[in-house]
What does this fold into?
Amino acid sequence: MKQWLATYFETHCPRDYLEITDLPEEPIIEHGDYRINLPHFSRFVSSTYDVKLDGRELAQTAAGEGFKQKTVRIKLSESKATTRSMWKVPKEFIPEELREKV
It folds into this structure.
């Protein structure tokens, strides 16, 4: 999973959670924590590595590795927002070059 995340973060640059976006599934940084949307990550792994990940199994694996789920408010515009289930990625799964930025 560590290599998948490294590649994922190379192609999906995490943005600050307060920034307005039209891509609410993209990874975010919230108070120094990197968060990912597991369905979005699963689709990325499937298309990049041709590996099919069962959503329930992925959530169980992520939880077992120390990922923590949280519903996060995502701004779509100044007046619109939505929520997404985002999982906090443990520090040891964050590529070294990204850890230095936070």
